[in-house]
Amino acid sequence: MVDEATRKTLSGIPLLKTKAGPKDDPKLWIQRLKEEYQALIKYVENNKVAGNDWFRLESNKEGTRWFGKCWHVQDMLKYEFDVEFDIPVTYPVTAPELALPELDGKTAKMYRGGKICLTDHFKPLWAKNVPKFGIAHAMALGLGPWLAVEIPEMIEKGTVVYQDTDKK
């Protein structure tokens, strides 16, 4: 079941049509990447309008390695983290494994290398929506909810400590 806020967020992210991954026909993969970028741009625009801007992403030239920043604001402090992931060879059938490497080992809801745990909730939803879901959906339904739950708990426990990123 999806709550109303999640349903609204999802309705604002375009669904993808091309079922292609990095090992498929290069023309199809380029088409898929165009759809991915269009969906990401729309999702970021929607977030900015809603006052909920929380990540930046970019990819390598081939669109197979993604990296950027994500953040969580709590008590008027912005906690910022590197985010990275590779597009699986079997994409889009297989969802990307989103990682926050600097948080590796700080929570039980994470795998080696800082990959966040999305097994129970997100991966079944992804499987039902192949090839319609893409990177923007992984951010909205995977990383966003994970940050909202895990980061406040890590702050409370002292495993994540505020660092002024403006002075870096």
From TrEMBL:
GO terms for cellular component: cytoplasm. GO terms for molecular function: UFM1 conjugating enzyme activity. SUPFAM superfamilies: UBC-like. One of its GO terms (biological process) is protein K69-linked ufmylation. Keywords: Ubl conjugation pathway. The active site is at C117. It comes from the Eukaryota. It holds the Pfam family UFC1. CDD domains: UBCc_UFC1. InterPro entries: UBQ-conjugating_enzyme/RWD, Ufc1. The keyword Nucleotide-binding does not apply. Belongs to the ubiquitin-conjugating enzyme family. UFC1 subfamily. E2-like enzyme which forms an intermediate with UFM1 via a thioester linkage. This is Ubiquitin-fold modifier-conjugating enzyme 1. It comes from Isotomurus palustris. The lineage of its organism: Eukaryota, Metazoa, Ecdysozoa, Arthropoda, Hexapoda.
